[in-house]
Amino acid sequence: MERHDYHVDQVPGGHRPLAAWKGKDRIGGNVLSTLTIILKTAGCRWNRCRMCSYRHVRLEGCGTGDISSPVMSQVEWIGRHFSPDDIEAVKIYTSGSFFDPKEVPLPARNAMGHLARGKIVIAETRPEFVTEDAVRSFLEIIDDGTHRTPLYVAMGLETTNDMVREKCINKGFSLRDFLHASRIARSEGAGVKAYLLAKPPFLTEREAIEDMASSIRDCSTMADLVSLNPCSVQKGTELEYYWKMGSYRPPYLWSILSILARAPIHVTCDPLGGGRERGAHNCGKCDRPLLDGIRSYSLSADRSLLCELLETDCTCRGEWDFVLRNERPFCMPLTR
Ligand code: SF4
Ligand SMILES: [Zn+2]
To answer: CB–CB of 134/181 below 8 Å?
Structure first.
C-alpha cells in the first residue's frame, strides 16, 4: 500500500477511521481539494511485504467476528465529520485492499461509494481483488456523470521489474497480474494509478534510481497516474532489521529529485518520514528545502523547480555522487 503518515490528523480510538484529513492533490492535471481516508479493516490478506508495517494494523478479533459493522461505523463517522461540499476527490486506503470483500465488506464499500458520489475516487487495492463486478458496482454508485474518469483503481506495483518486486519486496504478484487488473479496471471505465517504491532493500542507490527510471518509463504507458514512494523504515518490519544492522539506508533526497527530474511524465511524491533517518534524507542541513520543493512539485508539476533544487549547494551532494560511483551490490543470497 501507499506509505501514509498516520501522525497526520490521527483519529484515535473507537470505530473511527485510522486517519482522515483534507488536503490538495494533483489529479489528472488539476489541483483538487481531497479527502484522504484510511479505514481500519480486517487487514491485508497478503501480509508479507518486507517493508510494510501497516499490515499489522487490523480490527481486533476480525478472524472470528463480523467486521461489517465496525467498518460501516467508520464510514458513518466520515459522513458526520466531513462536508462533501468542499471536497472534489476522495482517496481511500485500508491497511490492505479496498476491493477485498473480506477486508471491506460489501455494505461498507457501497456506503463509502454513496458518500463519495460525484467525486473523483482513488481506491487502493491489490490486483487480485480487481474484478469486473467490484469495479462496475462501485462505479455505478459513485458516478453521477460529473467526471470523465470518476474512479482510479490504485495498485502498489512498486516496480515494473518482477525480480525486484519478488526478491526485494516479496510483493506476491507480477507485472502481468497488474496489467490484467488494469485491463479489467479500464474495461469498466476506471483509470489506473500505480504506486512505485524507490529503493527497496538489497538495491544500491544507483540500482534504485535505475529501477525507478525504467519503472516510470513503463508506467507512462500503463497507468494514468503515477506516485513515487521513497521507501522508509517502519517499525516491526524485516526492513527495520536490516536497517538496524546497518545494511539498509533509505534513499537520498538527491536520488528522489533526480528520479523525478528524469521522468518523462509528472510523478507525484510525498516522502513519508522525509528528512529523518528512517525516511528519505540527505545530510540534515539541506533536507527541509528539498522536501518542500518535492512536495510543491507534486502539486505544480513545474519542472524548472526540480532543476533549481538539483542545483542546491550542499556538501552532501559530493557524498551522494561518491555513493553512486562506489556502492556495490550486496553479495548476500536473496533466498534461503
Ligand atoms: S500488499 Fe504488502 S505493502 Fe500492501 S498492505 Fe499488504 S503487506 Fe503491506
Ligand atoms: Zn546536504
So the answer is: no
What is the per-residue pLDDT across 83-133, written as a single tens digit (0 to 9) for each?
Answer: 999 999 999 999 899 999 999 999 999 999 999 999 999 999 999 999 999
Cell, residue 75? 464510514
Asked if the structure places residue 138 within a domain, the reply is yes
Pairing of strands 89-93, 30-38: parallel
pTM, entire model: 0.93
- Number of domains present in the structure of the chain: 1
Atom index in ligand 1 nearest the CA of residue 171 equals 2
- Domain residues for the domain of 93 are 19-245
Assess whether the C-beta atom of 156 lies below 6 angstroms from ligand 1: yes
Give the CATH number of the domain where residue 232 resides: 3.20.20.70
Ligand nearest to the CA of 257: 2
Question: Which residue is associated with the grid cell 560511483?
Answer: 325
